Amino acid sequence: MAETLRIIGHIYRFNMMFDTALTYYYQSLEWATELDSLGLVAKIYVNLTETYCWILPMKALEYGEKALRLNESLDSPIEIGKAYSAMAIAEILSARSGRHPTAKNYANRAFSIQEGTGYRSGVLFSLMSQVWGEMVQGNESRVRELKEQVIDLLEEINVYRYLPLVIYMFLGEQEAIQTIERDHEWLSFRDMKKQAERFLASG
User: 84 Cβ partners below 8 Å, 6+ apart?
Assistant: First the structure.
């Protein structure tokens, strides 16, 4: 039951329906705690970090520290890398004017860890955290460079093809935006696009 609830949380998080995702993650955490499943608790801490980074960045950093400590004790580098990617975004969105060096450090750590594990989706997440840092600072040329890396990696792993939506929005690539809307019927596209617009505007 705990893992099922966690997966349901993923579905809502991927649609940027964060409040609902949190409901399922906390239910999953309650079950995992009762079962004394430290491995699952550690994963849920990462998921909470990945969710809160978009809406309550400072809370994301708190859960990120918990996730790092527990996953380090369990020797779970993939989860550590995912936590660093989310913490990078939290740093970017929490205080855009002064925390970019820390965010960049987290993103680079995530990239290095996931390259070492061979977890290609983790490499993708770390690249996207780098993208956010460059978008917030208005570095269009660097965003375009990272976009090419993201697209190449998506061709390799053939999942998460909706992730570049925010890149296309930043660059004004309307045809690519429409392609994501057409090809991902399971996404709550309108809600996802509104959230992405809000994040870009707040930068």
Answer: 64, 68, 106, 107, 109, 110, 113, 126
Percent of the chain with pLDDT over 70: 96
Does residue 81 contact residue 119 with C-beta atoms inside 8 Å? Answer: yes
State the residue range of the domain holding 41.
Answer: 2-202
Q: What is the CATH number of the domain that holds 53?
A: 1.25.40.10
DSSP string, 146-175: HHHHHHHHHHHH---TTTTHHHHHHHT-HH
DSSP conformational letter for 37: -
Alpha carbon distance 134, 141 (integer Å)? 9
Round the CA-based radius of gyration of the chain to a whole number and report it: 16
Q: At residue 44, what is the residue type?
A: I
Query: In total, how many domains does the chain have?
Result: 1
pTM: 0.91
- Nearest alpha carbon to residue 10 among 56, 41, 37, 48: 48
Tell me the average pLDDT of the chain. Answer: 91
Q: What is the pLDDT of residues 62-74, one digit of tens each?
A: 999 999 999 999 9
Give the dihedral sign, CA 170/103/77/24.
negative
Q: How many whole angstroms separate alpha carbon 165 and alpha carbon 77?
A: 28
State which H helix or E strand residue 8 sits in: helix 2-14
